[in-house]
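Data availability (excerpt). The following record was deposited with the supplementary files.
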Amino acid sequence: MRKVLYSKNLSIGYHTKKGNTIIAENLNLDLHEGKLITLIGANGIGKSTLLRTITGIQKPIQGEVFLNEKNINSYHLEELAQNLSVVLTEKLPPSNLTVYELVALGRQPYTNWIGKMAPEDIEKVINAIELTNIQEIIQKKHFEISDGQLQKVLVARALAQDTNLIILDEPTTHLDLHHKVSLFKLLKKLSATMGKCILFSTHDIDLAIQLSDEMIVMTKNKIVQEDPCKLIEMGVFNTLFEDEDIVFDAEKGKFLFK
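Predicted structure:
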């Protein structure tokens, strides 16, 4: 399976006037096509910082990130957008865009300077809408739909962008259980059937254990990337929370409360 993104001795954190604040160091992550990979860790551990760094939004403290065998910081913005789709948790800016128009924005890296879509662009947009099953809402304004529907729309926009790597920052936040499961299954299907590499951070750890091909687990002491069964064998989930009232049951494969 082809390696889509990898890091070499990566250190992440913040540059300040007093020096560097390092959140994690010596990270050697490998993301392969056709894999659904979840990123988990306690609040404030640095998940968003890691995602911002490997997507080129934030500079690393040390080390390198390679996307399709090219250093991510050497991409021009338009070229990067043709190789990497990012779905962040920020609210959309005020606008009257319809769902269809929002999905069509995924073609922006490929259209000409006035944004006119060619037949191939329209085909990619329609295909993304069908894959995410949002046909019934494409004429609605984006502020008229539910949070669960909006997440599917943003995934559709990323699909229309037609990159082999999609990275999402906590896409299941604010969703009810039905929509969480629905989104997980959609992402799983897209990685399996289309060969996409999909990485997303989540707090829904029990679902992630059931549906992920691999997981990246961030704790204060280390970051581990493995398949869920191996992580259970290694006892990694027991170190996730510094709370004696939360324990991981290896046999059931989920967290329990004392």
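Summary of structural features: The longest helix spans residues 177-194.
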